[in-house]
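Before relying on records like the one below, remember that each one covers exactly one chain. Contacts with other chains, cofactors or solvent are not represented anywhere in the record.
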Amino acid sequence: SMTNLTYETALAELESIVSSLEKGDFELSKMTSQLRRAKELLAFCNEKLAQVEHDVNDILNNNDEGYGEK
């Protein structure tokens, strides 16, 4: 489930799945579910990164509005 998942935990899980697949350290019967989970985690991480990028751009674009005013 993606509920209560952070970027860091999603990335760690994704890295673990990729590592297992690279080593061939998986049961063939679980490969499809691991690949599906990896795809979900990748989409989740990309969404989180896009949100942060949007927030950073908002901050940078509005950096002089309201600051230093008394």
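The chain has a mean pLDDT of 87.
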